[in-house]
Amino acid sequence: MKRLIVFDLDGTLAESKASLDAEMAKLLTALLGILKVAVISGGDWPQFEKQVLSNLPHDEHLKNLSLLPTCGTKFYQYAGDWKKIYSEDFTADQKGKIIGSLKKALEAAGFKVEKVWEKPLKTGEADYVFGFRATGSHRRKEKMGPDFTKRKKIKALLDKLIPEFSVRLGGTTSVDVTKPGIDKAYGIRKLRDILGIAIEEMIFIGDALFPGGNDYPAEQAGVVSIASGSQRVETGD
Question: Is 228 in contact with 12 (CB distance < 8 Å)?
Answer without folding.
Answer: yes
